[in-house]
Design a protein that fits this description.
The chain is built from seven helices and two strands. It is mostly helical and 204 residues long. The chain has a two-stranded antiparallel sheet. It is elongated.
């Protein structure tokens, strides 16, 4: 757990170390991304608050995810996706690729919440019991999410000038990747809702 939190700190020190020329985010862009980060964080944390061990571990079958599995995936994704943004921001800006972007932030938010379309989690993000308790997963998520919000509020980096393709959404800029991070949290909180709505889900 200590090593995990150290990696979070190192990642954000790295992000802040690069000052690449270009246009900074506007106050409106910062506020919009921070608002969505806060909203999706609250949505997730409110859903998992006070759950019992039986509720955290319930699975409809061996091949399904539990609430605990979803929590681990959300917590791990919080640093994994930022590590991709980190790598992107160390590269030369490529604003010429902006014409390749097909999704607005609002379109991303809508698409990510469509649970009828499923995908396979990358291997590093598959649940494997990395956290001993649900509280550990929540602590790791909260630490990383707070760092993400501080980064958005203070960064001087030109996030809009750095583009990288996503396997499903095509070309996105670094700012949009952070929107994707927020939407990903809500998407898997909706998965938690689905688990909790199952007939066999424990009452306590």
């Amino acid at each position: 757990m200590t090593k995990f939190l150290c990696l979070i700190a190192v990642g954000f020190i790295t992000l802040q170390s690069f000052t690449i020329a270009g246009t900074e985010l506007t106050r409106q862009e910062r506020d919009a991304a921070m608002k969505y980060l806060n909203e999706t964080s609250d949505y997730f944390l409110n859903h998992v608050k006070g759950l019992s061990e039986a509720q955290l571990n319930y699975k409809v079958d061996a091949g399904s995810w539990s609430v605990r599995d979803c929590m681990e995936h959300i917590a791990l994704s919080e640093t994994f996706i930022v590590s991709l943004v980190d790598q992107l921001l160390t590269q030369q800006p490529n604003p010429g690729k902006r014409a390749e972007i097909k999704f607005t932030e609002e379109m991303l938010k809508t698409a990510l919440l469509d649970r009828s379309k499923k995908g396979q989690a990358p291997e590093p993000l598959k649940p494997s019991g990395k956290f001993k308790t649900g509280a550990e997963a929540v602590a790791a998520f909260t630490t990383a999410r707070e760092a993400n919000i501080r980064f958005l509020d203070t960064t001087k980096l030109a996030l809009r000038d750095h583009m990288m393709p996503h396997p499903f959404f095509g070309m996105l800029d670094a700012y949009q990747w952070i929107f994707l991070l927020s939407g990903h949290t809500k998407r898997h909180t909706l998965q938690i809702e689905e688990i909790m709505a199952l007939p066999g889900f424990p009452k306590s």
